[in-house]
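Hi D.,

Good news: the full-assembly prediction came through. Inputs first.
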Amino acid sequence: MGKIIEVKGLCKSFDGIKAVNDVSFSVTKGEIFAFLGPNGAGKSTTIKMLTTLLKPDSGKIVMNSFNPASEPNLVRKSFGIVFQDPSIDDELTAMENMEYHGIMYSIQKKTRRARTEELLRMVELWDRKDDLVKHFSGGMKRRLEIARGLLHHPKILFLDEPTTGLDPQTRNHIWEHIKKLNKKERITVFFTTHYMEEAEQVANNLAVIDHGKIVAKGTADGLKRKTKSGSLEKAFIKLTGRDIRAEEAKPIDNLRMRARVWRR
Amino acid sequence: MKTIYVMWIRQLKRYLRSRARIIGSLGQPILFLIALGFGFGPIYQKAGGGDYIQFLAPGIIAMSILFTATFTGIEVIWDRQFGFLKEILVAPVSRMKIMIGRTLGGATVAVMQGIIVMLISLIAGFRPNSTYTIPLAILFMALIATLFTAIGTAIASLLEDMHGFQLIVNFFIMPVFFLSGALFPFDGLPKGIALIAKVNPLAYGVDGLRASFIGASHFGIGLDLIVLGSVVAVFLAIGAYLFSKIQI
Ligand SMILES: Nc1ncnc2c1ncn2[C@@H]1O[C@H](COP(=O)(O)OP(=O)(O)OP(=O)(O)O)[C@@H](O)[C@H]1O
Ligand SMILES: [Mg+2]
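Then the structure:
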């Protein structure tokens, strides 16, 4: 089967620290792929390089047969993304967020409106479409971001910890939608999560990254067999060790903190 | 074109929806108009300068534009930290257009703010020479607004978080404002200060506003237009370049 993402020898350092160190993997068209790893392993950094937000120091990336370095806009049209941190404009309504996204992706008005309605109904936000996003709950914002990421019919959907901080109901709900879309529209899904049951349940394939290096690749069953563990969580801990990751706080972490304090 | 429109309308909507911000940012110009206008008015008159409010109002209008414009430019950091910037930066559109749209949006907001302050100063006793030259004044407002939104964007593109913000206020906005001739005339200043004022683009903006409103000019309205126009072009280019280099 065709590969839709191919990564070879990807490296990225921040101030001499190797955040992503010689990472190689590939994702098959149409699959749900989980990218797992402890805090600070390099998951988000890898996603940023795949999605043209960050330039790799070295390595090769092919996204939907395009090269992010030389054909950024073709790559950008190929994927939709839900970032780890919120990325909707709180001061706009749900509808405006969708509209502006659609316009920037040059979707014709008629298609845009129809697709917006379809997606907002799917994530059950159609009734709230004219409300300012700042009045939404965390789960509603997340659902809106997913709907927005799907508006332009992407081939690949990136989800960086889409369910972190959400209650089990909302999490199930979100995964139902994503699985449905994966089936119906053949969207390839690339996601990260710290919930191992989640990864075990939905992912066809997965890769585990630790300290910037891939430490395991395969199916959930394969990893469990290889590490002789009863669950993916146990396999994960065997692969990545027990110690908690001490990480230097980045400005964004301070902000996450402050955002929490100010409930923005 | 559509990208520019989206970025522009977004800025406008955000502004119109934050009434608290609009009112809040009018406090400072009103205070300046009242405290300085009425406080220094008699001295200015005694010194033979004429009606101080006539001299001061264009300076205060420029001040409110300077603040609003620089802040909306710097809001890029805000977008960066609260995430919306990422959504824009992964969109399949040129970053140049994003920056231009955003800047025009910020500039429009700042001009609206300037016009509100103009109306307020009319209440405080400011009397422009004629209504015909008001469009010219608005052109100068637009130039000042675009310039400082672009500068704000350029600065914000270089910063990672809001920590540098106070620094920018104290070492950029304040000096630019106080050395722009907004509050006092340039005639008879010590050479050093006069020189600094000469390389301060806001000085040409204030001068242009004064020329259009009350027909009094230090540099000449032609020079004002040329200097401001070129500085706007330069900083739009710098801002667009730095913005296009943002990595997250
Ligand atoms: N802009 C940056 N500047 C400096 N260091 C960075 C930057 N972005 C990431 N890092 C560092 O790179 C490493 C990998 O970070 P990354 O965000 O990719 O981790 P992650 O796997 O997504 O972790 P988490 O599960 O906590 O989201 C960390 O050590 C982090 O501190
Ligand atoms: Mg992450």
